[in-house]
Structure formats: structure tokens, C-alpha cells
């Protein structure tokens, strides 16, 4: 139970571990699920990424704290992570990948609402950022529900399957999240 970092009435977040390789592989090789993120990598490339992401909380700048999102009964929902992108500016980036059969149930929003106060309580966080391609309206909606503000639109900033896509940048100041958490 010690690998759980946060839980609500419906879901829990736990550190990704070696036994999660099959679900990591399945989600990261699902072309439809990754249509807004990246082209699907080979199993060998994904295995190296998986090993890098199973470091627990002992990370360096540029590395991810990777989490599994599960129902309280243990059913798999998705993956989520937070990455220190600039230590001096105390900026972190969040990302999430929810299994197709679990989308539209509010799990990404709920998981992000669990992750943010935990991260702010455990690390030096001034700002959390997120990005998504402009056509990924579901992800943008999740971020907005969690208090993120769109701070910019970068034209042709992301390339997937040979196509240049616009990318939205979102930000949330730690002080805003603390105020929001107190009102929940």
C-alpha cells in the first residue's frame, strides 16, 4: 500500500512499477489513443522509456514521476505523470493517458485534482504546465476544469504522422491550486 500517493472515493494514484510493463506497452502502442501525443514507438524503445519512468520519486530534472491511475477496486484506468522541467523556476509538467474504455468518466480530471496538491505538498512547485494539440478538446477541457489557464497557442509546434499541429500551452500557479484545494 506504500506505493499509493493519493486516493479519492473512486480512484487512487500509485507509483508505476515493474509489473505495469504490459499496461504501459498496451497504452503506448495504441495508435488511436496516441493520436494527439506521438507516433507509436517500437516495444524496444518503449521498454527503455518504461525503465526510465520506474524510478519512483528519485528523479532528476527532465525525468518523470510516473503513476498508475486505478479504481479503488484495483481496475486499471490510465497513466499519469509529472516531470520537473526547470529546477530554478520550479516548473513541472503534467501528462496523462487514459485507457479508451475509461474516457469520458471524469477520471483524468479527478486524477489531476489528486496529483496537484500532492505534488505541491512534496516538491518545490511554483508552476505546473501542460500542453496539448489544439484539436484535443477533451484534454484542454480536463486542464481547464483543474484550474489551468491557456497561456498560449504555438502554431505548427508539434508533428505527428508527418502533419504539423498547433499546440496549446496551459499553466497553473501553485498559489492558485492551493486556493482551489482549500475551497473543495
Automatic annotation (TrEMBL):
Entry-linked SUPFAM superfamilies? Acyl-CoA N-acyltransferases (Nat)
What GO MF terms are annotated? acyltransferase activity, transferring groups other than amino-acyl groups
Residues of the N-acetyltransferase domain: 11-175
UniProt keyword Transferase, yes or no = yes
Q: Which InterPro entries match?
A: Acyl_CoA_acyltransferase, GNAT_dom, N-acetyltransferase
The superkingdom listed in its UniProt entry is Bacteria
Q: Which UniProt keywords apply?
A: Transferase
Name the Pfam families on file. Answer: Acetyltransf_3
Task: Specify whether Transferase is a keyword of the entry.
Answer: yes
**Protein name (Swiss-Prot/TrEMBL):** RimJ/RimL family protein N-acetyltransferase
Amino acid at each position: 500500500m506504500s506505493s499509493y500517493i493519493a486516493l479519492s472515493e473512486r480512484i487512487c494514484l500509485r507509483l508505476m512499477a515493474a509489473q505495469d510493463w504490459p499496461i504501459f506497452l498496451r497504452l503506448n502502442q495504441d495508435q488511436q489513443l496516441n493520436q494527439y501525443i506521438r507516433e507509436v514507438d517500437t516495444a524496444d524503445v518503449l521498454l527503455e522509456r518504461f525503465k526510465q519512468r520506474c524510478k519512483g520519486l528519485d528523479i532528476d530534472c527532465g525525468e518523470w514521476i510516473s503513476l498508475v491511475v486505478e479504481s479503488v477496486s484495483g481496475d486499471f484506468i490510465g497513466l499519469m505523470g509529472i516531470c520537473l522541467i526547470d529546477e530554478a523556476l520550479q516548473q513541472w509538467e503534467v501528462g496523462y493517458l487514459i485507457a479508451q474504455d475509461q474516457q469520458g468518466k471524469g477520471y483524468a480530471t479527478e486524477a489531476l485534482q489528486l496529483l496537484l496538491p500532492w505534488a505541491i505538498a512534496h516538491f518545490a512547485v511554483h508552476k505546473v504546465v501542460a500542453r496539448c494539440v489544439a484539436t484535443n478538446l477533451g484534454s484542454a477541457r480536463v486542464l481547464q476544469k483543474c484550474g489551468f489557464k491557456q497561456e498560449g497557442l504555438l502554431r505548427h509546434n508539434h508533428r505527428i504522422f508527418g502533419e504539423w499541429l498547433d499546440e496549446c500551452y496551459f499553466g497553473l500557479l501553485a498559489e492558485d491550486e492551493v486556493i482551489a484545494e482549500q475551497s473543495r
